[in-house]
Amino acid sequence: MALTQTPDLAAPRSAQPRKKGANLEKWGWIYMRASGVLLVVLIFGHLFVNLMLGEGIHGIDFAFVAGKFASPFWQWWDVLMLWLALIHGANGMRTIVNDYVTGATTRKVLVWALWIAAGFLILLGTLVVFTFDPCLGVENSTTDWLIEMCSAR
């Protein structure tokens, strides 16, 4: 009976000695679980209000969005959903990159690119939600209700 030897493999990153300081992997793992639960509540609340109340999908138009973004409650609801979803997605992609990209430099570049893209989208989305003005450019509009609403301001 011949015994086969396993090849000498380098220890995976997870088996290497732990560095001193904050355990970012543990906090990332906890964040994924907590944000996942919050996102389920936020997304189903968002879908219920948008699709089940009122006229359903046929009632979603510019006026519906303008009405929602006029309320600080819905602004914060959407911003919280945006932030949690983008950070959750970026952290998941970071985990995939760490698992499958073998080159240290490539891995570092990809992780930085992920966080820069997520940060840019968070900044842009937050600006859109909090600076949304339905009356911007209304003078070129052909919608009567919008002209009336904005002229009353």
TrEMBL record:
Residue ranges of the TM segments: 30-53, 73-97, 109-132
SUPFAM superfamilies documented for this protein: Fumarate reductase respiratory complex transmembrane subunits
Gene3D superfamilies: Fumarate reductase/succinate dehydrogenase, transmembrane subunit
GO molecular function: metal ion binding
Subcellular location: Membrane
Protein origin, superkingdom: Bacteria
One of the record's GO cellular component terms: membrane
Keywords, comma-separated and alphabetical: Heme, Iron, Membrane, Metal-binding, Transmembrane, Transmembrane helix
Alphabetized InterPro entries for the sequence: SQR/QFR_C/D, SuccDH_FuR_B_TM-su
Protein name (record): Succinate dehydrogenase subunit D
Record organism: Microbacterium lacticum
